[in-house]
Design goal:
CATH class of the largest domain: Mainly Alpha
Radius of gyration: 21 Å
Number of strands: 10
CATH superfamily of the largest domain: Hypothetical protein af1432
CATH architecture of the largest domain: Orthogonal Bundle
Strand content: 5-15%
Number of domains: 3
Distance between the termini: 26 Å
Shape: globular
Amino acid sequence: MRRVPSSFLKSGMITGSHIYTLDGRILLAKGVELTDGYIDKLVSKGIPFVYIDDDISRDIFISDVILDETRLKAKNHIRKAISNMDSFDYQETKSVVNEIIEQLLSNRDILYDLEDIRSVDDYLFGHSVNVCVLSVIIGISMNYNSEQLENLAVGALLHDIGKGMVPSHILHKAGKLTSDEFEEIKNHSKYSLEILRKNDSISSVSRIIAYQHHERYNREGYPQGLGGKEILDMAQIVGMADVYDAITSDRCYGDAISPNEAYELLAGSGDYYFKYSIVQKFLFKLVLYPTGTMIELSTDEIGIVVKNTLGYPTKPIVRMLYNSDFSPIEPYKEFDLFQFNNITIRRVLSEAEVVKISSSEGK
């Protein structure tokens, strides 16, 4: 399967994964043939993209790093926690994060290679879960013990709970924020600390993570303008996860950038925005070109990423689809770019380019 922006969906395409409603019900199941009505419904609900199965990607499998059931449970818990900030069920929080930790510990060589499908309205809840998952993956790579992983996961999952106290018209504003509105947005980390302090069961470490996740190594962050070693390492992990998920997601006030662009952006942040050693651990678990990405190679040929390998982000296994003149390669050929030092990925293709190339077949 591969990811297709909703604006490029066509009647007859087959869904490659389940698409869920805000309350966790299946909106469209995997394997459903899209109709114009289904597409209109997805667009109206603010679903930015859909995983689809087509001829070039049908046997390419993209697996989430946690179970669908766990992700939905975590999203619903965050939704309930934000709507009931003064007395949310912390035992449920612990249950959810330990489920996430257990699943991630079962595969220490895991790569973060799939983005969950979420609507604009679902952004905050999906974002909180993604930040938690990413943070735990990094915590595992740093050999954190079970207590440290739990503290990290709780702080990550609840890092934005304070946004429930930010007025909705500011939080979801599509245009540029005024200086006063931006200051109110920045207050969410203080609000998170205030909320978490009301629950004696939440560790001081988890509270500090939520409070400090917008602090930056060079003192350009907030709310205290801390720098360097003054910032808790776990808060920097969550801060990096927060930035990565935010910039690679469509939001009410901006479009996503590609994972390879985000990777390059974060690669330059060591000992500037974040501690260098944490940046290195973080990048080791990310992919530049997620499975299912259409790419152009230095040979001018067009291919699709079939699989990524831990530690070699620029050298995935690629299925060659089109020659340099856009004629189809039949049958498809697959190459592990690790075996070919003279071949590199030049760029990621937009869906508009994919459509143009596929429509030129046989002409």
